[in-house]
What does this fold into?
Amino acid sequence: MAALLAACSPAGSSTEAWTVDDNFAQQWYQGKAEISSYQLEQARYGAIHPGTAVLIFVTEDFSEKKHVKLDNPPEAGKDAVKVLKLNFVKKFNTGIYPYSMMTSTFTPVNRQQYPHSLKVTTTSQEWCGHTFTQLDLDGNEIEAHLFSYFEAEGDQEFDLKTTLLEDEIWNLIRLNPEQLPSGEIEIIPGTMYQRLSHKELKIEQATAALEASGEQMSYTLRYPALERTLSIRFDKAFPHKITGWEETYPSGFGDKAKQLTTRATLDETIMTDYWTRNTPKDSVLREQLHLQ
It folds into this structure.
């Protein structure tokens, strides 16, 4: 049991040097994760399906070489990289059968030394089967590994030029939204979108815009070739909590495809060391998040 707890909990301080202010340290280095639940309206098969989404943000010590969470950061030396990890979970039903999807993104806190996320993984499970996607940073390339139960997609391994990942946008908002790129950009679309759309995973052209409205801000990506728009809303003030998002693109297949919008609205947020909250009495925390 101790080994399992260590595998999930934030590691101790590494020897990596980075500079953060007191607000950042109090939010992200207190030994807890921020967990936010959202009411989800998910577009799939040309219809809207109710569900839930959860964003779990937590800092960890990560191996730059192995791309895994370190068991003993002080002994890792320069291999230890402090990252902000996002576990992004979606659950929704389509008719009789359920979908369960999760993306994990590992983005270094020290963006000056490490300007790109080190790793992204995405899994999708539903009654037809399950899939797995992994993107690993390797210098000037991103190593992509895609595994699927569909014959046409099969198992794939290929490289992409290192560029911005849509999946890391969520972490960049939490780290410093003012550093988000704007205008015409190159970007690799989100791996959840790629899974649901069955599109080829490749670098796309997009237009990015950061806008403010009162105490809220939004970051919007428009992909002309994909007929897709993603807009993420968040608090202007630190720690820039994500309050919701909208994603519009053709849903369904063939002649039945039509433009639909997935929406997520913030429900509740808690800060907790969830890796220790694994007894029956801790289920009250799920009740606080309105999760079944």
Observations:
- The longest helix spans residues 166-175.
- Helices lie at 2-8, 22-28, 73-76, 166-175, 191-197, 284-288.
- The mean pLDDT is 93.
- Residues 174 and 238 are 8 Å apart (CA to CA).
